[in-house]
Write a structure and sequence with these properties.
Elements (H helix, E strand, L loop, with lengths): L7 H4 L7 E2 L4 H11 L3 E5 L5 E6 H5 L1 H7 L13 H9 L6 H4 L13 H11 L3 E6 L2 E7 H13 L1
Parallel strand pairs: 1-2
Antiparallel strand pairs: 2-3, 4-5
Length: about 160
């Protein structure tokens, strides 16, 4: 894909919707659905990128089950799956930190847009956060790249 010298800064969405690492899965689902997006960068208390979470992370029952604690709250006694699920449903909810992808593919503002496209294809990701000093300043989705390609072809 040729985007005639466009950089990540040229094609990124600048208003980045982020999720706190401590947000519950319910809060994450609310943020994603209200914003009409399918994933978001996860940030720590200082606004630094620590991961990324998507709808598929939330919907993946096996991933949620694996993230549940395997010991009782007050000691190291193993508990049954049924008791764990009851505890989870009763308010012991998982956090974004528990399900997010930690190894995030990122770009800098000056990364060529063509390179960002290649990163998405090679790593099979749908979004790439653009970071400055470890903090998200933009995000690039496949749609952003398509728009950049259209703009570039009009020039």
């Amino acid at each position: 894909m040729v985007m005639k010298g466009l950089t990540a800064a040229d094609v990124m969405t600048r208003e980045v919707i982020t999720v706190s690492a401590g947000a519950t899965l319910r809060e994450v689902a609310e943020i994603l659905t209200q914003a009409g997006i399918s994933g978001a960068p996860v940030v720590d208390a200082d606004g630094r990128l620590v991961g990324i979470i998507s709808e598929s992370d939330l919907l993946n029952e096996e991933k949620r089950r694996e993230a549940l604690p395997r010991t009782a709250l007050y000691g190291a006694v193993p508990v049954s799956e049924e008791k764990l699920m009851r505890a989870y449903k009763g308010g012991m909810s998982l956090k974004a930190w528990d399900l997010m992808t930690r190894d995030v593919i990122t770009a800098d503002e000056d990364t060529p847009a063509d390179e960002v496209c290649d990163l998405m294809i090679t790593n099979r990701v749908n979004r790439i956060p653009v970071v400055r000093d470890g903090k998200p300043v933009g995000i690039i989705t496949r749609s952003d790249l398509l728009l950049g390609m259209l703009r570039s072809s009009e020039d």
